[in-house]
Specification:
Its cofactor is Zn(2+). The chain has about 700 residues and is α+β, with helices and mostly antiparallel strands. About 35% of the residues lie in helices and about 20% in strands.
Length: about 700
């Protein structure tokens, strides 16, 4: 996935001077890379870049030995009429004697893949091995996949523009030129200039606002991979929720965010520290982003990004934040060296998340959440087929394939099952916690491959190595990593039976005969007292069985529709998907109302996909026309793509929709189609409902 030649250099530090220009939707940047060549006279430095990133100049400077300790300043142009000002200029601190002069460098940009370019910077010929030097790149970035600009009306307060970055997996090459691979880590610092009144935050251990200069300063003291350099700016206000944590949110959301998380985050951090050793990032803050945030949550170090839409679904909020807390050890401190082994981050973080929830909320709740997720894994397995190559833990990335396409439940849940299996081999979860603590201590701030984890495991448990547990027939470590299909073994979830058994019982009632008797028995069960994950699991089972007999849907609606309508969005979307998949017209007004109130990908795409698969395409089109002005352009394009595919096929769509529009249905409004296809949009091969997981 990386076109960069990282193995020829050691990256010591990177410095960013950034100017946010929301009116032009442009970021102007100056990047100072501090490097050493690992062998003499390298001809060129090859970095990952992107067509959205326009390079203005490249320069070379011999660096003093302590360059990383003396950050440079950046000079920003004064705003004014006329053409856009140039990117910031670096201003290096005066060294004793003469300051090393900068000399210009030749560079070229070549196509690499559809998600990036390759930037080659020619280096001076006399460069010695291990001699520190700096490369200075000045650039502007517009329409970058990593940088999401929101107009004020796409925020809750509608007062100020908002911008955030999302680097996972390979988007940050459009934010700044870099070695865009998880194998390369370095410390970083940044100076950011933003419009007046806009608060800027970054994934950094230290931050400060210099009022007289009107700029924000950031420093990350621990080495991180490029994808974890993150920025957010907008009308954000803070509130402390613990001794080392605060939430940042738009003012109207702050009271809710504070009340939901006050005290809880410290409880989770302390539980994680008891299990896996000291939290090493200093602060653990959380910023709540507008609904346009394209995923649920992202584990940016020191500053978890999370979508505000999840605030109303308490149990999902708890699990998502604990998952990001777990990433502080697994993913951020110890990182998968390649995207082909993403499970090393996600599988271990999911295991750690469940150890934390067991310690904090008990085994029954953890087993319920696990059952809910494994259910979703098997649903995805049916969708993709048991021989799908993406169901392997060690996925082979073909050249040019975007690793973001590997973000699926296998990475999380099959990865979790393998880690759980390892914990069972040693017979005691506490001893396995001790192993993971030692693993983090050994590999922190580096990147690893699966063999590092498995070798460490067998070294830590020599008795298991003697028993050759890695070669047990049918459960070989090699088979876990490279076989397609479901996990080779799944955890015993019987400790959750007090919560999962009622769900099974109610589902069985609704699929039993005679219906009136079953409905009467079912109505005696009060699901308003259930946990969110119980209700979601029940609705998922009904969804799996859809289309259901019409009289069953009618009875379900009579029994639950009004009650579910008062519950959180995670519950409501599942009920509304049942309504849509069963063409149940009496409840369509609820679908309309839900889509009119939602602006996030996770609560719109699944419904539009279902609407366009069945007989409700014209309804979907009508609702989209009424709501599209409130959607982020990226989401608007994704929905347009779904609608154009749905309108263009008179038969049921294939499991992998074509990106081309087929013949129009005779009764379709051709103007509507032309309008829909006005923008290109990425295609989505599988339903996102089953991959709504945190990063």
């Amino acid at each position: 996935p990386s076109g960069a030649a990282a193995q020829l250099f050691r990256l010591r530090h990177l410095q960013l001077g950034l100017e946010l220009r929301p009116e032009a939707r442009e970021l102007a940047g100056c990047l100072v890379l501090e490097l050493c060549a690992l062998r003499p006279a390298p001809r060129a430095l090859v970095l990952d870049a992107h067509p959205a990133l326009r390079l203005h100049s490249a320069a070379f400077r011999r660096a003093p030995a302590a360059a990383a300790e003396t950050p440079c300043a950046f000079a920003f142009s004064a705003p004014g009429p006329g053409p856009a000002p140039p990117p910031p200029l670096p201003a290096f601190p005066e060294a004793p004697g003469s300051e090393p002069a900068c000399c210009p460098l030749a560079f070229r940009v070549d196509p690499f893949t559809d998600y990036g370019s390759s930037l080659t910077v020619t280096l001076p010929p006399e460069l010695q091995a291990h001699q520190p030097f700096q490369v200075i790149l000045r650039y502007t970035s517009t329409d970058a996949p990593a940088i999401w600009w929101l107009d004020p009306e796409l925020t809750y307060g509608c007062a100020k523009p908002f911008v955030f970055t999302q680097g996972h997996s390979v988007c940050n090459r459009s934010f700044f030129p870099c070695f865009d691979t998880p194998a390369v880590k370095c410390t970083y610092s940044a100076v950011v200039k933003a419009p007046s009144g806009v608060q800027v935050l970054m994934s950094a251990t230290r931050s400060a606002y210099m009022e007289e200069e009107g700029v924000f300063h950031f420093h990350m003291e621990h080495p991180v991979p490029a994808y974890l350099v993150a920025l957010v700016a907008g009308d954000l206000k803070p509130a402390d929720i613990g001794p080392r944590s605060r939430v940042w949110a738009e003012p109207c959301l702050l009271p809710t965010a504070t009340s939901k998380l006050s005290g809880a985050v410290e409880q989770w951090l302390s539980a994680a520290e008891r299990l896996y050793g000291p939290y090493m990032w200093g602060r653990y803050d959380i910023v709540f982003l507008p609904p346009s945030f394209p995923i649920v949550a992202m584990e940016n170090p020191c500053l978890t990004f999370i979508i505000s839409s999840i605030l109303e679904s308490d149990e999902f909020l708890v699990i998502d934040v604990i998952h990001e807390v777990a990433h502080s050890w697994f993913g951020n401190a110890v990182t998968n060296a390649t995207w082909e082994e993403m499970w090393l981050s996600e599988g271990l973080a999911t295991y750690a998340q469940r150890r934390i929830t067991t310690e904090t909320y008990g085994a029954a709740f953890t087993c319920l959440e696990t059952a809910f997720r494994l259910d979703a894994l098997h649903r995805q397995m049916k969708l993709l087929g048991e021989d799908s190559p993406v169901s392997k833990l060690q996925v082979k990335l073909e050249p040019g394939v975007n690793p973001s396409h590997l973000m699926n439940l296998f990475t999380y849940e099959k990865g979790y099952c393998f880690v759980y299996y390892l914990s069972q081999l040693c017979g005691d979860p506490q001893r396995f916690d001790d192993f993971l603590r030692a693993y983090v201590e050994k590999y922190k701030f580096t990147s690893v491959v699966a063999q590092d984890l498995l070798d460490s495991f067998l070294s830590f448990f020599p008795e298991l190595k003697e028993q050759s547990v890695d070669c047990r027939a049918g459960l070989e470590f090699e088979r876990w990593l490279n076989a397609t299909g479901p996990p080779l073994a799944e955890p015993d979830l019987s400790q959750g039976s007090s919560l999962t058994r009622p769900v099974e019982a109610l589902f069985q009632l609704w699929t039993a005969e005679p219906l009136d008797q079953a409905a009467a028995s079912a109505s005696a069960i009060d699901i308003s007292k259930w946990r969110t994950f119980q209700t979601a699991l029940f609705l998922d089972r009904l969804l799996d069985g859809s289309p259901l007999p019409q009289e069953v849907v009618m009875s379900l609606s009579k029994c639950y529709s009004s009650l579910l309508d008062s519950m959180n969005a995670e519950i409501r979307i599942r009920w509304l998907q049942i309504v849509v998949r069963n063409d149940y017209y009496p409840d369509l007004h609820r679908v309309r109302r839900f889509l009119e109130s939602q602006m996030s990908r996770m609560y719109t795409i699944p419904l539009y996909e279902d609407l366009c698969t069945g007989a409700l395409k014209s309804f979907a089109l009508e609702v989209f026309y009424q709501t599209q002005g409130r959607l982020h352009p990226n989401l608007r394009r994704a929905i347009q793509q779904i609608l154009s595919q749905g309108l263009g096929s008179s038969t049921e769509p294939a499991s992998e929709p074509s990106t081309e529009l087929g013949k129009a249905e005779a009764d379709t409004d051709s103007d509507a189609q032309a309008l829909l296809l006005g923008d290109e949009a990425p295609s989505s091969a599988i339903s996102l409902r089953d991959v709504n997981v945190s990063a």
